[in-house]
Amino acid sequence: MKPALCAVLLLLLSGCQINPYTFSPHWTSTDWYGAGVEDGRDGIKARSDEMLASDLNDPKVDRQAYLKGYTTGLDDVCQPHLLYGWGYSGKVYPEGCDSRQNAAELRKAWDKGMKEGTQSTSFH
């Protein structure tokens, strides 16, 4: 009986052992600038505050930081030579680029890439 009691006691004690490789969560605030950069680089339209709060699980949206990051992300993507490549490879036109001053030029570069990419892959 003593060996069984010792085994049960050891099992109970080992269940309460702290794993030194388990880290406690480190809570930080949402990186609204980074979220904006990602959305801009993805070429999507800027998300509303309600959508951001829901998607990122943080009701305190920093709209200014998000939009600043979003603009930076669009600056990275909305370039004629890059959009030509997107079109050539068959990627969908990033609708966020429609908000740029040179939207017509950007769309034209994407269209040209799309046409040339389609022609190079068609079997004549």
Task: Provide a quick synopsis of the model.
This protein is an all-alpha fold and 124 residues long. It is built from six helices and no strands. It folds into two domains: 48 residues, no CATH class; 41 residues, no CATH class.
> How many helical stretches?
6
Which overall shape is indicated by the principal axes computed on the Cα atoms? flat
Structural class per helix/strand content? mainly alpha
Radius of gyration: 26 Å
Number of strands: 0
Poorly predicted spans = none
Oligomerization category of the chains in this entry: single chain
| Relative helix content | 55-70%
Succession of helices and strands: HHHHHH
Q: First CA to last CA: what distance?
A: 86 Å
Overall number of domains = 2
The average pLDDT score comes to: 85
Taking the sheet with the most strands, its summary is:
none
Structure characteristics:
mainly alpha; single chain; 0% strand; 124 residues; 2 domains
Could you explain how this protein is built, in words?
The chain is mainly α. It has 2 domains: 48 residues, no CATH class; 41 residues, no CATH class. It is 60% helix and 0% strand. It contains 6 helices and no strands. The model has no long low-confidence stretch (mean pLDDT 85).
Task: Set down the secondary structure blueprint.
Blueprint lengths: L1 H14 L16 H11 L6 H7 L7 H15 L2 H9 L14 H19 L3
Helix pairs in contact: 2-4, 5-6
